[in-house]
Amino acid sequence: MFNQDIRMFIGVVEAIDDPLSSGRVRVRCFGYHTEDVVSINTSDLPWAQTALPTTSASSGGVSETHALEIGSWVMGVFTDGSDAQNPVVMCSLPGTTDDIPDWSPLTRGEDTTARYIDDIIGTPQSPYQATFPYNKVRQTTSGHVKEYDDTPGAERIRELHKSGTQYEVHPNGDEVKFVVGDSYRVVFKNDSIHVHGNVNIIVDGDASVSCTNLDATVTENATAVIGQQLNVTAQRAILNSNAVEINAPLTLVNGALTVQGPILAGSIAAGGATISDSGSIISSSGVDLDSHTHSYTWTDSGGAAITSPANP
Question: What is the bridge-based pairing of β-strands 156-160 and 166-169?
Fold first, then answer.
């Protein structure tokens, strides 16, 4: 019930473990409750509803939750007036530490979070140059962070998990991602990637590709180099290149390798390339290198034609 005698209060949150899981908090309100927790225990404080912004429907499961913690300073109203048993928290107030608002230091230009540099691919340094009041920061209890930085000339977006996994969008539109654990990506329909520039992929471990048909096209004068073990499970693997160098074992499973360009045969022999499960290596002219043979014919001193045995 709302009372015409609505009264405002300022207080400190002392409990957030609402047994109804409805986002209520217990607040010790100055001027209404004793400052000590003996005369009025925390468990005796009334539960206060928390008002949410209009961006939250707060109905039908469409809502968001508050981020108040024990110790948060808040301001609100008692909707039942002087009875002071029906509090509603309207907003939070920043606390102070040594006369400085107790906000995330990221808002004041103090970059306190860890970032990583990969020297192999040359990931750029973070362009963090936040100045107050442009960096809008949301930081949670465990250390998750979201930044929307509008600092002129240093505009960024960054999202950080407490483990260190993060992505950051730089002022020039570059994006840098770091995943400190395993990474998984699932696409249930089609996927297309168009890279206007160059692509550099470095795999420290093994690389395995499994598909129905694999068509890898290399244009211009590029060389397709197979360095470590490459396992391809496909009906047919096609490399369109002016040169294919294989300097490590190559395994084709239930398929064939077509190279539309010269093969550096010495590298294949040195690398010990293998074909399994009756697969075959086919040259650019369509000749099966596994079964193709050569023989030659000459005439002996008596004029008879002699043909040599077939050699592979």
Answer: antiparallel
Rounded Cα distance between 16 and 25, Å, is 5
Comparison of pLDDT for 247 and 170, the residue scoring more: 170
Between the CA atoms of 19, 24, 28 and 32, what dihedral angle is there, to the nearest 10 degrees?
Answer: -110
Which one-letter amino acid corresponds to residue 133? P
pTM exceeding 0.85: no
**Neighbouring residues of 80: CB distance < 8 A, sequence distance ≥ 6:** 1, 2, 3, 86
Residue 89: closest CA among 139, 14, 38: 14
The string of pLDDT tens digits covering residues 170-212 is 999 999 999 999 999 999 999 999 999 988 888 888 877 777 7
d(CA 100, CA 112) in angstroms, rounded, equals: 17
Q: 3-state class of 267 per DSSP?
A: helix
Structural domains of the chain ordered from first start: 7-97 (2.40.50.260), 103-178 (3.10.450.190), 207-282 (no CATH)
